[in-house]
Amino acid sequence: MIKTLVPPCEALKLPVAKVAGTKDSKKLKCKGLRMELKITQPDDWHLHLRDGDLLKAVVPHSASHFGRALVMPNLKPPVTTTDSAVAYHESIMKALPTNSKFTPLMTLYLTDTTSPHEIKLARRSGVVFAVKLYPAGATTNSQDGVTDLFGKCLPVLEEMAEQNMPLLVHGEVTDPNVDVFDREKVFIDTILQPLIKRLPQLKVVMEHITTMDAVKFVESCKEGSVAATVTPQHLLLNRNAIFQGGLQPHNYCLPVLKREIHRQAIVSAVTSGSKRFFLGTDSAPHERRKKECPCGCAGIYNAPVALSLYAKVFEEMGALGKLEAFTSFNGPDFYGLPRNTTKIKLSKTSWKVPEAFSFSFGDVVPMFAGNTLEWQPSFI
User: Which of 175, 212, 338, 373 is 20 to 30 Å from 137 by CA-CA measure?
Assistant: First the structure.
């Protein structure tokens, strides 16, 4: 539902206009300068919460907007067993603000030695909802990841298909001979396509897609069997954002930002209304000192601004009427979970993103730090 807010006396003097991107039956009442968008509370289907003090610091930002989040397992040590996933779940619950209704959904970290029995335990736990594939060395804390998917993990993948346990894929090869900007495409050609052919019943989510190649691949697969999450950064930024005005470490993530033609392809896919794409922020907090250093780590912290940025993209494309499906429907439908019943409100009200969030252990710099955004979320 989209509406504007002004005194009723002013509303009577102005016409009614159709909202671009919505059905003809949906109307926008042009009552004034402030517009509101009411949507079902979204979920975040790709989130990094870390642990310890950093977990306690950042989890309120996600809990304030999202009903659920699929929490990534790349801790030190990684979350490789159901028991460790249950323990991590308990740590997150203890770190939540009082009276929070936020629900963390846990994942397991796939390794060369993960067993089919562990997948059965995960399914029975009621806490674990997916398994994450990190090619060894592909991104932050991925050194324990998979070295030979088909040679060492096929029995586990077969059990996942049997248990209807989705495989979440960091879709990049790690061969040093492959250009960093080509790693997603090569992964699709050499790993994903053969995997889908070999195990067509396995549900797969290609995480944080960055290329038109990924868009075409997902669209070519059977709907409901292969899907993709999309981040705010890959919708709004291209690779120039890493280098303009000097090196910008807080815009560095993996998979790395790509050319403008790829960004445009992802925006078009996401705002088309396709059910194959849904919200996954890949919000990845790092202390400023670990980003602004000689060997800065990859990851963009976007949890405080994600919904504002998604709304910005959909508004610019004239597709606000399709935002709710992307943020709130497509994800739970793919995972076979109920949609949230709570509503949130996005008000078109200017607000400034903090330059940094300061904690006792250091600063965390958010995406678009210091910039002014227009859409501001709140609960109804």
Answer: 212
